Inverse folding.
């Protein structure tokens, strides 16, 4: 009889708690409702075991007080966040970079980045890097660099490869005296590939092809009024301009080939079982073919770099809606959360850069 | 890499809930209930936080980059339900250390003012 009524008490308590959770803002509920119920159930079980039904009543005392105060706090915070979005532009990392060419251009780059292990993987093998040189001369000559790399899951030490990729691209790019951006970026990408390839080969005995470490890599340089993109694999670079989403990089994946051949639509590709298969990456061969792209940047453009953990789960429309609506910091947070809401099967990484080009009238006269 | 140049001191002082959650995660990754158990055990039940405080804090700590969510997996000691585990980021480790050092300073002041019994013994928990 005792165990029967205890069980009933647990069930009733959980149902009641589920109902009471409606007091929280919807967004908060979506993110944590399941975990909160789980935790409440655990607490209930513990209270019951330790102090019987009185224990559960005491727990309710704590939980009700906690619920009233925190639900109120969460609503207040949601309101404040909404007001901030309405009246303020988020200023996460606001950088002013002055060009030194005849036509002096002032950039404002607002940058945010986020990487998350996702919901199903044990390890985050994605790496990202944003480099905005503080020396104005370096900035004028080499520009700002953003890199995203996705260490390959089937390979061992994918995170080592992606870490090497982002760091080598950065070091090699800024060390190169050549001010021809495309050539310099291409060299840096090739340097990263050979560093990883040599690390593979230096193992004794050299690993089988499917045991080698490897990684994708997409790098973007913003300089003057142009963005240069270099790509190997299926991590992506986009420009979001108004309601347009322009994919700058081309995936080196099997499904992308099929889309180009007209055999698949982009939406079919997103759910395709072989969407993770790529035919080009860093680390497998001594030399790698790198694709290069460039695009003139416009006022208000948003540059987005991401891994397939994001692009496979979040549609172009969702991407465009999020980055246009929110500041960069909030955008990267929401993009990652959106991919997690869709299941988060892979590591998720995003860099978002808002570019404002303002011709400075004062400086122009110099 | 502007994103990683944040100073841990800028996050201080922490709320008691955030500080206790960081301490609970300092030696091991834990799920929500595991965090609650650890806090209750370490404080002999003096500090108890409800699920709303716990997840409200977790939400903000994730946004501030103090902690990160790892994989979901069952806790072998509880049941076969999958649970989300949380762990400290490098930045979170620096912040919890900075807060502990700040509090140590405060305790030192309390000692010099002879507020605590046995004021010579500096450094107790």
């Amino acid at each position: 009889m005792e165990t029967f009524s205890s069980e009933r008490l647990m069930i009733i308590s959980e149902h009641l708690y589920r109902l009471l959770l409606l007091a929280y803002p919807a967004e908060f509920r979506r993110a944590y409702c399941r975990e909160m119920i789980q935790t409440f159930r655990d607490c209930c079980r513990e209270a019951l075991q330790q102090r019987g039904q009185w224990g559960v009543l005491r727990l309710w005392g704590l939980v009700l007080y906690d619920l009233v105060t925190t639900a109120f706090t969460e609503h207040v915070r949601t309101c404040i966040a909404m007001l901030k979005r309405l009246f303020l532009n988020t200023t996460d990392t606001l950088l002013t970079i002055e060009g030194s060419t005849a036509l002096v251009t002032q950039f404002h780059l607002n940058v945010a980045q986020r990487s998350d292990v996702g919901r199903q993987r044990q390890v985050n093998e994605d790496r990202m890097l944003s480099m905005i040189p503080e020396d104005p001369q370096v900035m004028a000559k080499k520009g700002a660099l953003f890199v995203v790399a996705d260490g390959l899951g089937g390979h061992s030490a994918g995170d080592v490869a992606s870490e090497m990729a982002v760091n080598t691209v950065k070091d090699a790019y800024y060390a190169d005296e050549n001010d021809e951006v495309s050539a310099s970026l291409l060299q840096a990408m090739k340097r990263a590939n050979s560093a990883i390839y040599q690390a593979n080969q230096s193992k004794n005995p050299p690993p089988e092809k499917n045991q080698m470490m490897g990684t994708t890599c997409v790098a973007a340089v913003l300089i003057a009024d142009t963005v240069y993109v270099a790509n190997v694999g299926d991590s992506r670079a986009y420009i979001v301009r108004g309601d347009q989403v322009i994919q700058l990089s081309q995936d080196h994946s099997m499904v992308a080939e099929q889309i180009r051949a007209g055999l698949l639509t982009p939406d079919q590709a997103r759910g395709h079982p072989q969407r993770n298969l790529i035919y080009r990456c860093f680390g497998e061969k001594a030399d790698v073919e790198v694709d290069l792209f460039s695009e003139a940047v416009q006022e208000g453009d948003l540059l987005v770099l991401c891994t397939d953990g994001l692009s496979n789960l979040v549609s172009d429309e969702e991407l465009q809606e999020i980055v246009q609506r929110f500041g960069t910091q909030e955008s990267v947070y929401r993009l990652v959360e959106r991919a997690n809401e869709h299941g988060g099967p892979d590591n998720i990484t995003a860099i978002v850069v808002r570019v404002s080009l303002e011709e400075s009238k004062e400086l122009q006269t110099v | 890499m502007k994103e990683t140049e944040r100073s841990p001191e800028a996050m201080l002082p922490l709320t008691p809930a955030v500080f206790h959650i960081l301490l609970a995660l300092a030696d091991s990754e834990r799920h929500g209930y595991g965090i609650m158990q650890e806090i209750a055990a370490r404080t002999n039940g003096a500090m108890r936080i409800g699920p709303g405080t716990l997840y409200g804090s977790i939400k903000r700590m994730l946004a501030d980059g103090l902690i990160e969510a790892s994989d979901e997996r069952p806790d072998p000691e509880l049941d076969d339900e999958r649970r989300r585990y949380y762990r400290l980021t490098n930045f979170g480790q620096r912040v919890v250390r900075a807060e502990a050092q700040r509090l140590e300073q405060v305790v030192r002041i309390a000692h010099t003012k002879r507020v605590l019994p046995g004021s010579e013994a500096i450094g107790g928990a």
Remarks:
- Residues 94-364 of chain A form a domain with the Phosphatase 2c; domain 1 fold (CATH 3.60.40.10).
- Chain A has eleven helices and eleven strands.
- The mean pLDDT of chain A is 85.
